[in-house]
Amino acid sequence: MKAAVIGAGPSGLVTLKYLVSAHTFLGTEPIETLLFESEDTIGGTFQARIYEDTELVSSKQLTSFSDFRLRDEDPDFVSAERYVKYLHEYCDKFKPWSQIKLSITVVSVKPNIKGKGHTITYSAKGTGKQKSWTCDAISMCSGLHVTPNLPEIPGLEDHVPLVMHSSQFKSRSQFGTNKTVMVLGSGETGADIAYLAVTSPTKQVVMCHRSGFHFAPKVGPPCLDFPDTQERGIPVGKWSLLTLLFDTAYVHPLLRNSNAPWTFYDWYVKGILWLNTGTSGGLDQIVGEPSPEKNHVSKIFFKSSKASPYISYPYRLNSKRSLVDRIRSGIIQSPVPSTNGRQIDLAPWPESVSSDGEIHFQDNGRPEFQRVKDGNIKPDIVICFTGYKQTFPFLDRDHYPTAEEADVRKILHDRDPTVGFIGFLRPSLGAIPPLAEMQAQLWILGIMVPERVHELRPEDEPHYRLLHGKDSRIGYGNDHESYVYQLALDMNSAVGFAEIVKRSGERREWRLAIAWALGTNVNLKFKIRGPWRWDGAERLLETEVWETICRRRWLFGKSLRTAENLTLKLTPGLQIISYCLFSPWPYLVL
To answer: What SUPFAM superfamilies does the database record attribute to this sequence (predicted)?
Structure first.
């Protein structure tokens, strides 16, 4: 068996690692593997498309690969530079360097004319000479073959001094001094750059959106944590929001395939946000919430909230608070960071730009239009955060599907399972690298020992996908937790309740069962059993995952510590019973 990987970002590297080591897990012959990367180093997007102060939006606990974790001393949210270093350390650990071919451009991928398999034509940078390599399977992991999407706004490029796409932005120095900066786009990166701009010596910062956005915190909200100022908050996500025992496991098909779980999460998330900030549209988000037809958890990609206080600032000054809100905020309120009088002016999408450089905005019927319609806004710099078009110019389109056409677990097309698309999806709240790890496991298992893969039924697809509208630019969103668990079921890697309790009893260590029940769906959970079983998974669940859960401090955390201190000398079975008496989670689940 020979396999190729295209792209040396996180998805490509983790796929390469599993291909190289597959024989030790699956009992097969070793796979001869090559990875082709067009750049002169590894890292993919995290190396090529980063900017000053770039920070991962998902926590290290979730983003780390299962069998090689970011260090204890690393912060919960590491910088892009640190993450690239981590990828180098990952390769140093598992030693796939000899299989990685850098500065190699893939020219074409075509079916092998001599029979089954694929022929890859490539050339080394600067040589112009082409070579070919035949293989039995190929994994598409490259995100660098992209074309920027540029908005069509009359007069934009003719009458604004500087217009650039986000791919061209690298540092604060590009804002200049005392300039008006306009950001087109309210996605994760757009909001992040708006924050960089407003905390730089700019004159004015304007952020334009089409149909709203939703800010989420990066650490657990106070109503769940009751934070102690001497301690770190827990990384947000389902680490701090919900128990998972009956969240994505043991869900009856009738419930799973209905909208009931989405309805519950929508109510839950908006309720938690209101308790913390008095608004349900997003964390401290007074303005800019998604349009009514999109303002539902099943359709939202959550954004980091660093820009939120700057956007809300002018509205907060003039807002009239109800008696209920004053009572609520007196009991519990997420601290609102000071903006020192600085603000980000939220605006609708531009309609046109006049000859003197003034922006004319679309009337979206929202409060932000009333604030900016007569503001005579003339930006010096416009940065377009309007996404990319994913293209595979080297693929023979007569014979190969694209990532968008991969309709079997978002990994492959059933007409050719030897071609895998790894990492081409977007979680609403989660991280792509661990999803890519699970995708790689399933794809490799399918091509090496397909009899060990459960039937990949189409009816198991919809429940983990976001419910995108027809006009959505991104149509490949998914729920991280449900998707990971589905892939685990496909590989027989999901541990049952009885089995996890039995394992805890054998180890005389009840932390394993509790970490499994209360921790988010980190890939470690699916290394306890199945084809990719790893002995270190249980230890990490009992240490890293356990410690993260206990950082909840009040709800779960302190009750867990209390139960542990009182039951250390009991048998595992009695420990679990005693734990249930001291911990509130079973009652919340029921």
So the answer is: FAD/NAD(P)-binding domain (SSF51905)
